[in-house]
Amino acid sequence: MSNTLPQITISNVTIRQDLTGRYCINDLHRAAGGEKRHQPSDWLRNQQTQELITELASPGIPGDEQNQPVISVQGSPDTGGGTFVVKELVYAYAMWISPKFHLQVIQTFDKVMEDQKPKTPGEALVEMAQNFLAHERALHEHGRQIADLAIQQTHTQAQVSALVHGEDYLTVVGWSKINNVPVTSSQASVIGLQASRVCRERDISIGSATHPLYGRVNSYPREILDELLL
């Protein structure tokens, strides 16, 4: 007899199992499309099916349901009713319906069995490495999102600084975002030093904005940054 397997789902239909691991062919019928010509009762009357059932019948205690390749349970699917068969008959029924459905059933069962196999040390190591890489990618994406938020916040703080100073003050990064001019961190640092020098030479006050990563950063009049960067 077939061993009980985890849940089997074919074409979004869950194939019910009884306590001994037999599968409900009424559910398989629904998974195959539910056509009248594929009714399980017609297949069960087939001579070839009957011969296969005879071959599969256990030589154990006659009438013992646990030893039978086919049993019928009275009632609706909601109450557990249906015809339940061993895996060999599942394959036979699927083949009777069509080669395509037969292949789909085999592949589904094989995948479930493969998923249940204990992993070798090598496979476990590969899975750990894959999980680690996925975690690293997630951390990288999280860091990128934080950096984007930091830039947005810096720009907002620069706008607040502009209100305080009564002028249009921007950080170097804020200016670059507004003007769509890419600026790296190292370039922003150099430009900031140049802008600070110009402001001191012209006796222009330097603003300040809060940066979530670097604390406080300087902001400068827009015209000074325009002069240096355009």
Total number of domains: 2
Biggest sheet descriptor: 3 strands, antiparallel
The count of β-strands is: 8
Number of helical stretches of at least 4 residues = 9
Give the spatial strand order of the biggest sheet: 3-5-4
Percentage of residues in DSSP E strands: 5-15%
pLDDT averaged residue by residue: 82
The chain-level structural class is: alpha+beta
Helix-strand pattern: EEEHHHEEHHHEHHEEH
**Helical proportion, percent range:** 55-70%
Provide structural commentary:
The chain folds into two domains: 8-116, no CATH class; 123-229, no CATH class. 57% of the residues lie in helices and 13% in strands. The chain contains nine helices and eight strands. The strands form three sheets. A three-stranded antiparallel β-sheet has the order 3-5-4. β4 (70-73) and β5 form a beta hairpin.
In short:
The chain is of the alpha+beta class.
Notable traits:
three-stranded antiparallel β-sheet, rod-shaped, 9 helices, alpha+beta, 2 domains, 230 residues
List the helices and strands and how they pair.
Layout lengths: L7 E3 L2 E3 L7 E2 H7 L8 H6 L1 H10 L13 E4 L8 E4 L1 H11 L1 H18 L4 H45 L3 E2 L1 H8 L5 H17 L5 E5 L3 E7 H8 L1
Antiparallel strand pairs: 1-2, 3-5, 4-5, 6-8, 7-8
